[in-house]
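Lecture 7, part B: from sequences to assemblies.

Below are the input chains for today's worked example.
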Amino acid sequence: MSESNSYRSVMRCPVCFSRDTDVLMIHTGTDFHYCTKCSFQGLESEIRGMYRDIQKKFHNMGKRITLEEQRAL
Amino acid sequence: MMLFNIFHRPGPGAHYDIYRQQQELAHQLGLKTTIFLYYSDLFDPRAIADAIHDRDTHGDEISLALHNLTGPEITEISNGQIALWLLDRERKEQILARMIGKFAEVFGANPTSIGSYHLDSSCLEVLRRLAPEARTVIGGCFEEGVRVFHGCNHSWYLFNEGMPWNPWYPSKTHGLRPARDEDDAAGVVAVPHLVRDMSLAFEGRNDFWASHPPNVIRGMGNDASFCPYDLNLIDQYRMQAEWNGGYSYYNTFVSPSWLDWNHNSEYPPEVAWELYRKFLTYMASLKKDGQLEDLTLSAYGERHRQIRPVGHDEVYLAKELLYGSGKHYFWFVDPAYRVTIDATQGGSIGDLRPYAGQAPVATGPDTPHRDIGSYPYLIQSQHRSGNAHHCYDGARTTLLLKHAGQTLDLCNYRTKVASVTRADDRVKATLTPVSFTFADGLAGELTTTYEFGNGVITISRQVSGLSAQADLELIEYFKGAPGRTEYPEDLHGIILEANGSSPVQREFDYSGQWIDAPGATEVAAVIPHVRTRLSLTSNSAASGRVHAGHLFSPYFTLQLAHRLTGNGTTRTCLNLTPIAA
Ligand SMILES: [Zn+2]
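Predicted structure of the full complex, as structure tokens:
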């Protein structure tokens, strides 16, 4: 787990990700990350909030469904 | 009983230590692994010594990974190409000969197994000749293709759709098609690279929803180090043993880069590690309970030969987990076809691969297929529209239920898979009944039952509980086209046929014309693209129709109509038969 790994501060564009495409944003050293594929740019805190919104569709994200429960699904 | 493979591979630099930690974790839990060494690792004394130590101490297998074609006397042949199956045949052979030769020089014997993301028919042929000892392979990534290509920003050239989801015997002419018999078989057992979520792998990117905890992080299916989905997916595969001779199969292949900071995750590496640890710990607990057996890849291959004869079928009942949609999909595969039933669309066929025609494919710049290694479809309703919701409908099947001038489309009704049974070499899946009501008040229920096997899909429609003795027309509907990606292909050469009082035989011409076939008991399309004749047949049918779609809806359509007065059942066979090449 190298501390100097260049991916430490890299984030995927939440707009492109919501279209199921992984696009890495560029972090210029200012607070903003910007996308090279679409026009989105944002702060890390805003981006993480958008990730949370993307996850809202997974209603069972926190639910353990055992083998016996799956048989009954 | 679940049979389980763990695959690990070394990484460069700091990733080598991560690989060693992965090995240590598996061994602490009492689990065996298969170590995949790249060609370049065969020049690294430390990688060789550690692998030999783990083999001799823990019973791991040392195997050869084909992906990443770098190293002495190979880099200059591959010229930056990382995918062996996308080279021409001559280069495939040159590289394989060097890799296998070096492996034998280091370990004193050829590898007994080989790993790749895809093995096309020419790679398999060369491999069998150069290393007949390699009897088991990782041979494909289930359904990776169009969606993964999009997902990786159109940069991941792995077109691998239309294959079995569980281990199979690759055929000689297509590495992803299960062999009909020993003569047709390429001589190896193949396992998939990871196992996939059989609901979400059909609906979207299947590089997210797989037996690989950091892939699920990539898909954002975790809440930091809390991710019950990883274990839910394992249990869904365990459930499949019920319909598959008491066995299920699972594997995992997490390379070290996924357990470090990486471009597919916004979490620190500790999260991926914690989820990987939980995943393997669950597997170890299943082993303790006598419900799981861990094997090396080769040992699995030999076990497969004992428990699954060449030509076997396989069933998967998928119940969607992550969204909580309640959706069911039903999958069946054997050497004649692979089919997906979309229960939420009334039991429509969502995907159909006509293996019966044995369409040959090899990849590489010296073949007409180039990069598209997929087995072609006749229906892929996700790539090709399916049920109509924008303009025309696309590739799908349905039942049209007609009464008093009104038509109901079964695709608009949700069902689930009520039961799966096996009898007389066939698999039967019965769906939950659909309640329907026409505008004039006529109401009733319709139950669909499918039977799979022997190159035929038998579709039964039972109408019951009709509120009045009335006339109904039941039209079996098949709309499809041969294809490999989301874009249409040239349909010239297809012949549409029907029997009856004025038999039809018409070349597909993009005319958009329907042709009626009164009295028909068979409607068919001869599709040279997949060397297959597809027909709908029923002795009790009243009429048929065939259609050559225009360029805004480039599909052929077959219809076969039954008439019922009151309750009753219709049976239609969907037949896939090979035609001469
Ligand atoms: Zn973007």
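Note for the exam: Chain A touches chain B through 33 residues (CB under 8 Å). Keep this in mind when comparing with the next example.
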